[in-house]
Amino acid sequence: MDDTLILGGETLSSRLILGSGKFADTATMIAAVKASGTGLVTVALRRFNPDQPTDDLMGPLMAIPGLKLMPNTSGARDAKEAVKAAYIARELCGSRFIKVEIHPNPHHLLPDPIETYEACRILAADDFIVMPYMPADPVLAKRLEEVGVASVMPLGAAIGTGHGMATREMIEIIIRDSHVPVIVDAGLRAPSEAAAAIEMGCAAVLVNSAVAASDHPVGMAEAFKEAVAAGWKAWCSGLMPTSETAVATSPLTSFLGS
Amino acid sequence: MAVHISLNDKNHDLPDGATVARLLAGFSPQPKGIAVVVNGGIVPKAAYETTKLTDGDQVEVLTFAGGG
């Protein structure tokens, strides 16, 4: 069972992608990243404040051997802003990974499918490894695949809600039709949900709040690592077929009644 | 003579002839992971020493923060 995941030619040793937001402090975030065993961590762009130099995120993250960064375009309201953010991020860290994230409405943070498509089209044509956060829409997933994204990342539920895989049926269709890895991004709360996503054929999961907003982020990161590993092992082993009627596992001999 | 620029939407003064490198040298501690955008265009690191800033320039200095 090969555990590696290849995205845009880059090899990752883990099927867990971790977000770096919402942690109480940088030290906890770094400890959680290490405990998770992830090879890919998302980061966001923000303005540097010269009057309040805060923790340097890039230094400690890049000190973790083999770790790759995936900047996101959070804050972008349209394709133009997302493309600008992608180029700034690439200049900043040199990573080809970009999580395209365009959610103009702060109330639900749901991704704008039209602007997401347009940004992906532009960035995929310029050698980015494009990873779109997208609605769980099978038609959009195929359209994004056609423009050259490295994966599609449908939401399980709205960002930060912890409502799990509310879009399960749509994600099943996306997995069935997709020729690029499908990664559930957003909504997951429990490690068992991550295991379930991998068991049904997702190539990876992306979690942030589930770890960062737990009581013990380092322990939760480890739990997600184990859940994803279990899910992958189950997927590779092939789940048993389901049946509409009961099928006995023990021999139904009648010696007790004779 | 001073050069009046906008740094991340705040007024900022620099000596005449100042470059992007001179602007960054004024920060303490020195930021490591940053990108610089002047009037909407990204300034590559190799051009920090040679990119002069002039009156009215809109300068953005960006870095990474935690995000999902």
Give start-end ranges of low-pLDDT stretches of chain A: none
Number of strands of chain B: 5
Shape of chain B: globular
Please work out how many helical segments of chain B DSSP would assign: 1
Biggest interface, chains and residues, is: A-B, 37 and 25 residues
Percentage beta strand of chain A: 15-25%
Quote the average pLDDT of chain A.
94
Q: Which residues of chain B form runs of ≥5 with pLDDT under 50?
A: none
How many H/I helical runs of chain A? 9
Oligomer: heterodimer
Shape of chain A: globular
> How are helices and strands ordered from N to C of chain A?
EEEHEHEHEHEHEHEHEHH
Radius of gyration of chain A: 20 Å
Through-space gap between termini of chain A: 49 Å
CA-based gyration radius of chain B: 12 Å
Strand fraction of chain B: 35-45%
Structural class of chain A: alpha/beta
Placed side by side, the strands forming the largest sheet of chain A appear as 5-4-3-10-9
Helix content of chain A: 25-40%
The helix/strand series of chain B, from N terminus to C terminus, equals EEHEEE
Descriptive notes:
The complex is a heterodimer of chains A (258) and B (68). In chain A, 37% of the residues lie in helices and 16% in strands. Chain A is an alpha/beta fold. Chain A has a 5-stranded parallel sheet. In chain A, helix 7 runs parallel beside helix 9. Chain B is globular and about 45 Å long. Chain B has a 5-stranded mixed sheet with strand order 2-1-5-3-4. At the A-B interface, strand 4 and helix 3 of A face strand 3 and strand 5 of B.
